[in-house]
């Protein structure tokens, strides 16, 4: 069973398309996100909520609810609590007090993932990450760009992604999950985006199509060369030594241990 801390490639499915639930679970995704928010039309919100279920898979089932303040939020939270889902994704995460109340309302058995997708959300990311009920941060990069009026390019979003990585680290939480690659028909672009996110210290990436999942998993899995390097580093002993002309000390060994831990998780 995959834990919430090790989710790398969760796959979105519209909550009003139950015929797709099992297909999503049969993919290489390590979690299924039933989406009540952006993927569902306003007129279908109540119908979609009634279709929620978790009995189609042993993988973690996560529900993205509608944002606090919308007409559907309270019903979404009640449904998620009743179903005992693994986690709830709260979109438009900006207010720590509101998020704290959501965490309390869901109870101790349901984790909350805060979807940061605005300038205000990013400004409060450290405070949000530190809330006891917040399991992970997620970057809603497309909405973030719409909020700031900026282009969705890696170099532009670099400060935002690094701030989320830092916020999670300061709070002692698992590294954030990156947002989607909208062009799901281009596997190379998905892989490049995921590889960029991993290089920055993020730990996973949202997927909107099954064909994206293998690319994300490949990007976040240590390569054979990295695994071999890590093993040789840890076999080098203690203190400052040289491996292949590189100085090895304890910070480098910590990185090597992290790589081997990721290999075990994969």
Overview of this protein structure:
The chain is α/β, with parallel strands linked by helices and 266 residues long. The chain folds into 2 domains: 4-221, Phosphoenolpyruvate-binding domains (TIM Barrel); 225-265, no CATH class. 44% of the residues lie in helices and 15% in strands. The protein has 12 helices and 10 strands. The chain has helices at residues 21-26, 45-50, 73-83, 96-106, 119-123, 125-129, 141-148, 154-171, 187-199, 213-220, 224-234, 250-265; strands at residues 10-14, 31-35, 61-64, 87-90, 111-116, 134-139, 177-178, 204-205, 241-243, 246-248. A 6-stranded parallel sheet has the order 1-2-3-4-5-6. A two-stranded parallel ribbon has the order 7-8. β9 (241-243) and β10 form a beta hairpin. α9 runs parallel beside α10 (213-220) and α11 crosses α12. The longest helix has 18 residues, at 154-171. The protein is globular and about 65 Å long. The relative contact order is 0.11.
